[in-house]
Amino acid sequence: MKKIFITGGGSGIGAATARLFAGRGWAVGLGDVNAAALAATAAALPAGAKTYPIDVRDRDAFAAALADFAGAEGAIDVMMNNAGIAVGGTLAANGWDEIDRVVGINLMGVVNGAKLAHPYLKAARGCLLNISSAAGIYGGPGIGIYAATKFAVRGLTESLDGEWAADGVRVRSLMPSFIDTPLLEAGIAGTNYSVRQTVTAGGLEITPVERVAEAAWAAVHGARLHTPVGKTAKRLAFAARWMPGALRKQMGRRGLAG
């Protein structure tokens, strides 16, 4: 039986991906800081899941979880670095603790997951799947720190795709736009608004989380390095390549996040 380990597996993209892979016969390992959410996700899966209440910044706990899930065979077919948090607002309005937390989870959590999972992925000749964002395609105003972490995840994905090819490990990323997950409830620094309120007011679409799960399945089994998910992400990818000047002007009028 193939195995997938998903960080941030208690809700949102992680939980939806767990349901899809479990429904197709995979064994699932879930990591999340929210033990109750982990239990709820596992209970909804046909054969349950192994759950690990971990913070992706805690390398020792993360390493122990992966070793336990890999088991005697020492192999994991897919490592999905999904755990992440959202933050909005201008850099001037973001607090230092907030900045450090976003970088620690969104970037270093992915670095930790990649490095710790490498031997298990190599043994399985498997796939590392990193969750970047539409904000990793083009950084808009009001999402500077979030975009910086997602651009970093994009760059790490590209580097590891080259580094790990000789080990038979495929490396992929998803770049979702606005997805219907709890991240949309995050507040925007310096305002009284949530990300969801800002997205809705801007007339932008919110993509169902199940669509990201399907994209995860396609990415793991396909050859594409980066996969934009959702209309906004696809429009950003097109504009960043073919109309960078117009996109820059548009970003001067409003911010977009993923």
Return the structural class.
Answer: alpha/beta
Straight-line distance between termini? 33 Å
Q: Give the total of beta strands.
A: 7
Number of helices: 9
Mean pLDDT: 89
Q: The biggest beta sheet, please?
A: 7 strands, parallel
Read across the widest sheet, the strand sequence of neighbours is: 3-2-1-4-5-6-7
- The ordered H/E elements are EHEHEHEHEHEHHEHH
Low-confidence stretches: 196-203
What is the 3D shape? Answer: globular
Helix proportion of residues, in percent?
40-55%
| Rg over C-alpha atoms, rounded to the nearest angstrom | 18 Å
Oligomer: single chain
- Which percent band covers the strand fraction? 5-15%
Brief overview:
The protein has 258 residues and is α/β, with parallel strands linked by helices. Helices cover 47% and strands 14% of the residues.
Commentary on this structure:
- There is one protein chain.
- The chain is of the alpha/beta class.
- 47% of the residues lie in helices and 14% in strands.
- The chain has 9 helices and 7 strands; from the N terminus they run βαβαβαβαβαβααβαα.
- The protein has a 7-stranded parallel beta sheet with strand order 3-2-1-4-5-6-7, sandwiched between helices.
- Strand 4, helix 4 and strand 5 form a beta-alpha-beta unit.
- Helix 4 (96-124) runs parallel beside helix 5 (144-163) and helix 8 (231-242) packs across helix 9.
- Residues 196-203 have low confidence and may be disordered.
Secondary-structure blueprint:
Blueprint: E1 3-7, H1 12-23, E2 27-32, H2 35-43, E3 50-53, H3 59-70, E4 78-81, H4 96-124, E5 127-131, H5 144-163, E6 170-176, H6 195-201, H7 209-221, E7 226-229, H8 231-242, H9 244-251
Parallel strand pairs: 1-2, 1-4, 2-3, 4-5, 5-6, 6-7
Helix pairs in contact: 1-7, 3-4, 4-5, 8-9
